[in-house]
């Protein structure tokens, strides 16, 4: 059982469709230990190049280098048998080749994103550490690229803040996509300022980005939670260039990608969204945007406990006139709409049943089940030719048959959600983080995809200690963030 903690803002990030296509292009040869050659997979989240998608999870409260809350990230490798605790690699700023030092309360791993940034066929992991002090700049924030290799993540490169005096918490939001349309993966970085920075591909391990662009979003700057609290990428108008979504306290703004930098296309939904994710749910060739409104304004009567809105893409980009709203009041969605459930606080997209249509995972980490407050729950909505639907919705918590564990107060099951095919069976598996599990040690669950949807049969679960993160009198909160969720 865990004690109650303050709500943490969710900032899921998404690899855009065109960046995925670029990552998959080519059959790059890499050298393995012993001189053997093999083709790296090119998958944006395959950090060791073995052809299986991997799972990257943050433990920003972990002890590293003897420093409390210095933070760490864990990669659990995919395989023919899926994800397990045994196949993992844990990285911190105390790891060899990683820039910087583990320092108290840095919270390395607060933000995560992934993509093949240097086009070597290996996925790379981008880590945001927005509370890191940079010299005398308190909470200036930092961004680190951890490079993929045949042995997994190895070494890193710092992406320097171009405007340290203009904002704080550089790296509080991240997204990878081809925002300039040159076929190379770019990196978008947000802070507490209005300025959002696009670091251009291709990246190198020695020099970082090939260049950078700045655009000032129509958002409020100032102390957190001001600025670009969330970023996401997707090709909503199907022009071959990813667009960037900026989530903020002032609203969610879609900027159309271009070689000269993003330009405003539209505003989508209210501010203070807990999560963003992107996928082409109806397979019409245009990515769709999902906004999770987990904390509802007192003047908003859409739903008491949170809701998600899908804005469908079209030839002109995100179409705010074509949208659908889902909550626990939606027919077919299990549960009841209650105050402060935080429904929509975490989002992820992937095809769980192999029918070719992406599905949507929704987390509500404050959901109360029985007498257990803030135990948390997760739902999976189906995609189809007409988009997302409330028909056939599945829901999971720790009292669901086959799911390891038991519902306890403040577990926060659904803190983070992730959908990816980790065993190459053509169906996305559902990963769930619960950072509050076991007094804020945190834990991760992985449930398999199947032709009938997500199944708890064969589900696995593992906590922080299983991946080499000790409590040591601190709160690791393993499972608070996942890359690509």
From TrEMBL:
* Signal as UniProt keyword: yes
Q: What is this protein called?
A: FG-GAP repeat protein
UniProt key word Signal: yes
Q: Which UniProt keywords apply?
A: Glycoprotein, Hydrolase, Repeat, Signal
Q: Which organism is it from?
A: Streptomyces coacervatus
Region (Disordered) location = 84-108
| InterPro entries listed in its UniProt record | FG-GAP (IPR013517), Int_alpha_beta-p (IPR013519), Integrin_alpha (IPR000413), Integrin_alpha_N (IPR028994), TAT_signal (IPR006311)
Q: The organism sits in which domain of life? A: Bacteria
Recorded hits in Gene3D superfamilies, A to Z, give: Integrin alpha, N-terminal
Signal sequence, renumbered to the chain: 1-38
């Amino acid at each position: 059982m865990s004690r109650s903690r303050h709500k943490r803002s969710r900032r899921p990030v998404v690899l855009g469709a065109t960046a995925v296509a670029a990552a998959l292009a080519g059959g790059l040869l890499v050298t393995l230990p012993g001189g053997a050659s093999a083709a790296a997979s090119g998958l944006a989240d395959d950090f060791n190049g073995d052809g299986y998608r991997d799972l990257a999870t943050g433990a920003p409260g972990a002890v590293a280098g003897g420093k409390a809350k210095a933070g760490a990230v864990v990669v659990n490798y995919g395989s023919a048998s899926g994800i397990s605790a045994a196949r993992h690699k844990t990285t911190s700023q105390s790891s060899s080749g990683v820039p910087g030092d583990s320092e108290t309360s840095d919270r390395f791993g607060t933000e995560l994103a992934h993509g093949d940034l240097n086009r070597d066929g290996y996925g790379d992991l981008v880590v945001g550490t927005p509370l890191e002090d940079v010299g005398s700049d308190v909470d200036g924030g930092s961004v680190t690229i951890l490079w993929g290799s045949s042995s997994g993540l190895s070494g890193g490169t710092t992406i320097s803040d171009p405007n340290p005096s203009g904002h704080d918490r550089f790296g509080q939001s991240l997204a990878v996509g081809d925002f300039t349309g040159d076929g190379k993966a770019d990196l978008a970085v947000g802070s507490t300022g209005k300025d959002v920075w696009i670091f251009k591909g291709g990246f190198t391990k020695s020099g970082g980005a090939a260049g950078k662009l700045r655009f000032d979003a129509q958002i409020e700057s100032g102390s957190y939670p001001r600025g670009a609290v969330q970023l996401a990428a997707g090709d909503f108008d199907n022009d071959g260039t990813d667009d960037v979504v900026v989530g903020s306290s002032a609203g969610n703004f879609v900027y159309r990608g271009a070689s000269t930098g993003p330009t405003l296309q539209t505003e989508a939904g209210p501010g203070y969204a807990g999560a963003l994710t992107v996928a082409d749910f109806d397979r019409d060739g245009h990515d769709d945007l999902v906004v999770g409104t987990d904390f509802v304004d007192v003047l908003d009567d859409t739903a008491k406990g949170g809701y998600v809105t899908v804005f469908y893409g079209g030839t002109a980009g995100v179409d705010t006139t074509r949208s659908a709203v889902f909550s626990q009041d939606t027919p077919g969605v299990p549960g009841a709409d209650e105050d402060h459930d935080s429904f929509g606080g975490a989002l992820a997209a992937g095809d769980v049943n192999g029918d070719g249509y992406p599905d949507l995972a929704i987390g509500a980490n404050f959901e109360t089940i029985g007498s257990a407050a803030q135990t948390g729950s997760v739902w999976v909505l189906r995609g189809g030719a007409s988009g997302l639907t409330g028909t056939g919705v599945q829901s999971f918590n720790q009292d669901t048959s086959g799911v390891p564990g038991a519902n306890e107060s403040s577990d926060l099951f659904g803190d983070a959600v992730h959908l990816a095919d980790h065993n190459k069976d053509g169906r996305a598996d559902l990963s769930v983080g619960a950072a509050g599990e076991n007094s804020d040690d945190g834990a991760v669950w992985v449930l398999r995809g199947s032709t009938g949807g997500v199944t708890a049969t064969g589900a696995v679960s593992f906590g922080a200690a299983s991946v080499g993160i000790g409590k040591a009198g601190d709160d690791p909160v393993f499972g608070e963030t996942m890359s690509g969720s």
